[in-house]
Amino acid sequence: MTVAIIIKDSQLTEKSLTLASSMHLPLVDEVSSCHYDYYLSYDAAGLALASSTNNSFKPLRIDFVHGKTAQRLQQASINKEAIAKAFGLHKGRRPYILDCTAGLGRDAMLLTKLGCRVDMIERSPIIYALLNDALQRASLHSLTKELSSHIRLFHTQAQNYFDDYPNRHYDAIYLDPMFPEKKKSALAQKEMQIFKEIIGGDLDAHLIFNACQGYYTDRLIIKRPRLAPRLAQSPSYQLTGKANRFDIYLAPAGSNQSTSASGVS
């Protein structure tokens, strides 16, 4: 898979140059001259990823300010969201959460809307760039400015994150691994096709699960398709919905160390 940065708007040339330099990707000035599988480009709406070979792929852009995601954020409440129940959210309880598989950032942003603070880890440099751009745009909008201030994004592997910050602990850790789908699912929607092809599958999710042990004081939550097999041993309990399931692993008794992530940058 090959990726390039394409300049579509001359007024955004400087941003394109900066992105190409930081990602160590080639910079071209016309889509027609692009001999790459995918290209990243800026326009007035932000950064997007598109396919240069498959016109049926809808360009992928992460947006917390407009569209369905923004609408869901505005309407979200603890009583309505299944993820709130999975994390045990209630009045006075707003855990500090580490999302080890950030992806499109929707669940992390939703958790901040519900009052939590969230650190996100994303290992794909392309998805990280799209997420970072979306968060920057969100920080400039009145409806999402406060939410974006309660979320941090790290570009790294989850296993490396714990090696780099061995003293950093969280109230809860969240995993939403993606595996290659054998059947058609929501991921087959056109807006998700590029995402699925770029990310592939989190086939090392069991290693991430193992790396998380000892770094949460309350619970670790794995989001899975409703009928998918477990990622690890039997959870403490499960919450099952129409499409998804939360496998919830409570911290062992005596895991009462104080959460220390809040003061670390």
From TrEMBL:
The keyword Methyltransferase applies. Its EC number is 2.1.1.242. Coiled coil: none annotated. S-adenosyl-L-methionine binds at residues 106-107, 122-123, 176. Its main location: cytoplasm. It holds the Pfam family SAM_MT. It catalyses: guanosine(1516) in 16S rRNA + S-adenosyl-L-methionine = N(2)-methylguanosine(1516) in 16S rRNA + S-adenosyl-L-homocysteine + H(+). It is found in: Cytoplasm. Keywords: Cytoplasm, Methyltransferase, rRNA processing, S-adenosyl-L-methionine, Transferase. It is an enzyme of class 2 (transferase). This is Ribosomal RNA small subunit methyltransferase J. It comes from Piscirickettsia salmonis. The gene is rsmJ.
